Amino acid sequence: MEVIVFPDYAKLSVYAAQMMATQIGNKATSVLGLATGGTPVQTYQELVGLHREEGLSLSEVTTFNLDEYWGLSGSHPASYRYYMWENLFRHVDVPMEQVHIPHGDAPDAMEECRRYEGLLSELGPIDLQILGIGNNGHIGFNEPGTEFGSITALIDLTPDTIAANARFFEASEDVPRQAISMGIKSIMQARQIVLLASGASKAEAVAKAVTGPVSTALPASILQLHPQCTFLLDEAAASGIDNGEGLAVKRM
Ligand code: GLP
Question: What is the pTM of this model?
């Protein structure tokens, strides 16, 4: 695992967008795994900038989003489908038929999970997976305790996660209690993984993920076992890491 620390969130975001652009430059038909949440917002803005100003085309790219709230349709402003449209897809040239996000309003959750996992097997593997990290170490919506062998599933959100995401809703009672998420196995199958974390609220989870034991108690710790995984952190998110014991931390 490689860890790169940036002086601030803006520089981290520029670097992450560059990594995505390099991937697309090397392979126009790349399959990208995308994350939502506050952290990747500026990465997507930078990517839009590269599309507008440097002619980066996403026209042959296929995308898979990690997760979606169960019970929200894509027209709900807090849905991840809406987020992706607003933050990225409406500004770039990826055809929407190449965009895949679990349907939060599908008639049957189990069937939707099967459909999504099937699409991943058919169109994958993901070349570059972007991840955020929850305060409790979750990746996608794979909460602590999720089996490492898990595939796309309907997840019960923890009170922690509901509280952390309440800022995107009018009231915390409005936060859905469940979500469809790609599983940990589905995520680990990506050829390359880039995890973004910013701010002191992530410091503890990040430190445990990079130097703690690999344990289902902290889902992101599994990333230590991935052959090509990079953590991009700002100073605050990196502040809990005890530099030592063979962990190569690069500062940019
Ligand atoms: C949500 C998402 C995750 C995301 C995490 C962190 O729970 N399902 O994919 O990584 O929140 O979000 P933020 O970047 O807003 O801190």
Answer: 0.96
Q: Which of 179, 180, 67 is nearest to 132 (CA)?
A: 67
Q: Kindly give the pairing relationship between strand 62-65 and strand 229-234.
A: unpaired
Report the distance separating Cα 122 and Cα 119, nearest Å. Answer: 5
Which residue bears the tokens 């989003």?
65
Contact 195, 233 (CB under 8 A): no
Q: In what order do the strands lie in the sheet with 62-65?
A: 99-100, 62-65, 31-34, 128-131, 192-197, 229-234, 2-6, 249-251
Q: What is the pLDDT of residue 245?
A: 63
138 is catalytic: yes
Question: Any residues with Cβ below 6 Å from ligand 1, and which?
Answer: 35-39, 66-67, 132-134, 140-141, 161, 165
Q: How far apart are CA 145 and CA 222, in angstroms?
A: 12
Average pLDDT over the chain reads: 96
In degrees rounded to 5, what are phi and psi of residue 193? -125, 135
Active site residue 136: yes
Mean pLDDT score, 69-89 = 97
Give the pLDDT confidence of 182-216 residue by residue, as tens digits. Answer: 999 999 999 999 999 999 999 999 999 999 999 99
